[in-house]
Design brief:
Chain B: InterPro entries: ABC_transp_permease. The complex is a heterodimer. Chain A has 17 helices and 22 strands. By secondary structure, chain B is mainly alpha-helical. In chain B, 69% of the residues lie in helices and 3% in strands. The chains are: A alpha/beta, B mainly alpha.
Chain lengths: 503, 331
Amino acid sequence: MVGNAVFRVEGLRKSFGRNEVLGGVSLDLHAGEVTVLMGANGAGKSTLVKIVSGVYERGGGTMTLADQDFAPNTPAEAIRAGVVTVHQNINDGVVADLDVATNLTLDRLSGRGVPTLFNPARVRREAKAVADRMGLAIDLKARVSDLSLADRQMVAIARALAHQPKVLILDEPTSSLSSAEADRLFTLIDRLREQGVAILYISHRMSDIRRLADRIVSMRDGVISGVFDTKPLDYEGAVNAMLGRKIHLDQIVARNSAKAVLTVEGLRIGQGAKPISLTLGDGEVVAITGLVGVGKTALAETLFGVRKPLAGTMTMNGKSYAPRSASEAIAAGVFLVAKDRATSGIVGGFNIERNVSLPFLKRMSNLGVLKRRLERATARRQIEQLSIVCRSEKDEMSALSGGNQQKVMVARWMAQNAALFILDEPFQGVDISARRDIAAKLRASANGRATLLFVTELDEALETADRILVMSEHTIVGEHRNAEVDLDRLLAEVAGGPLHSAA
Amino acid sequence: MTLRDHAIRYGFIVLLFGLVAYFAIAADGFVSPQSAVFIFQSVAITGVLALGVTATLVVGGFDLSIGSVATSAMMAAAYVMVVLEQNAVVAVVVCLLIGAIVGLINGWLIVYMRVPDLLATLGMMFLLVGLQRIPTEGRSIATGMTMPDGSVANGKFGDAFLALGRHRFDFFIPNLIPVSVVVLLVLAVLIWFFLEYTRFGRMMYAVGSNERAAELAGAPVKAYKIWAYVISGVFASIGGILLAARLGRGDIASGNNLLLDAVAAALIGYAVLGAAKPNAFGTAVGALFVGILLQGLTMMNAPYYTQDFVKGVVLVVALVFTFALSGRGRG
């Protein structure tokens, strides 16, 4: 191992209002080493990155770069000091309408002491030097908008490296790359490692982590929950530190189901992914868990008809089920509470009442004319049923807390009887009491339908489901009845590695 | 509700009544049935167009082609009757078809060709302004005109068609209310009912507010968007029919202000009752507001060339009401 840390963070704190996001994070980065940072959504990874890259001001703690105090006020200062960040959204790192050469030297176009006139020859010369150092084989005259995602990513990274950084932070760089494209990125990272750059690599993809990591640091709820640096690396330990149970929750009584509602056979939802087969029973609550990006949302959308499967058949209550749109799925009794309510659930211009009635307007109208009294009665009943905290059904959605907004989303789809009720990350951005309310409601009303939840957090699965399925690489890799779950095996499946115990 | 809420909600209506009260005192003859009817008549065509464009605003779009759809419909009506010597019914049907087809093309460009709404309808506006001049080589259409090939067009506007522009219904006072005002009122009530009380209108608002949420709630988003442009096109062509009936000829130079006036009325409508969103009632009030202001100023001898300035001021004030004060303005 390399000796002293190039970059050191000690006791870093950050709060937004009363909400503490980072509660004293300490982290070392060493030259010529790839440190992987793992953490579920909301663990504080992005806040950490934003403080380090000078976007946010820190709330407390110290940062040192090569034994010197490091306190960037702006992203530009951080870059000049040698800490360079490539953000998750590739298009934030490049200007699509300019050519590659200009992109590579963009940061030299502004600031003090830069000539007023733009000199294309000089730009091309400097860009070539940057590209050669990186081993970048892209036509410098090509427009970035004509490049593939992977090439853009390379340009964004090369642009970052034009500053000859001491520390490079990559935030989920492979999230939109194919595996061949990712391989090119890994080669580049290997090269940088040899050049002695300290790299912080943030990712959920276990295959990336296995390929690259020299160390793994797990984060959970704003603190470092585990550091793993002895080889061979303990991947399951890292996943456990990131997702594992923090408090002991009341065990639920797992139920079995006699009657199948939905049967899925040979469903393939990703190129090269193994087929999925599963059966969901009447009255049963099933949770599918797995890391971000393993295809949970893709599966939810496939069941809901907004994404086409590559292969496979589905049977619903004995009849063939192949929805081609959300409205066909809804007609068949399949309802989805979509992930990320702000973008795909809440209609901001509507109050609670109108948000609740949205999918079922046809059933609440006569010759197209809305039955307003029925609409109001439904909204009032649902507010009562899910104990939504509001003044009346006329309240604007923006007046509600995150937990209550989510309750409205659940209430919307519980207003009518479902055959299959799917909830994708229903507990994201939801406080613990609202989460308990929703989970209790789901379990209490489960009879007469199959309920399917997609959750990243294990706790959420353990406290709501009768059965837990594990997804990895766009397929289902494990199944557990939620009674004396073998957590080690479950975590191993989440981490996607070879199983210790015989499956 | 706080004072601020009240100001946002009723401010514009109070302003409207204040304006009426002021003109009633300051301008002789402002308060009379004839004056009221004149105001309605002056905003009838603009109002019909504004109600149409409201539909596209509701789905989060915009239609810049309404003015040129109206003038194209006017020219088409004149061409059908004067040159092709057809009757009034044929002329009206042709106009409505033009409106519907243009709306379909706009919707197709925006939904399937992914052209941004402003650009698609701007292109369509340009295209129509040019297209309406081609059949007559740029000349206005009137009975007895000489055609490009030297022949003389002998058809004339049918009486039934002209009645659309000239007939007045009795309403307490004989010959009081023009057809155009009746059309405006009927269409206003229709589109208001459609947007507020039917599931289709409700879904259109949902599409405009959060397209993805509407789609995941099972709405055929693309169809709703295209329908909005068809409504807009058809309403604009009705405006064109009324314009042709009023003028009695196909005047190449008329209808220049229609687009801006209609859009202004719809946007002023955002401020009415603190809606902060496109709505049919607001649009109608917005159109009336402009009409009352101009009528009052005219009766007080304000010169005609100040009119656009006044409209602009009203629009800017209304937009400030909507976006700055209510704090929830979304376009």
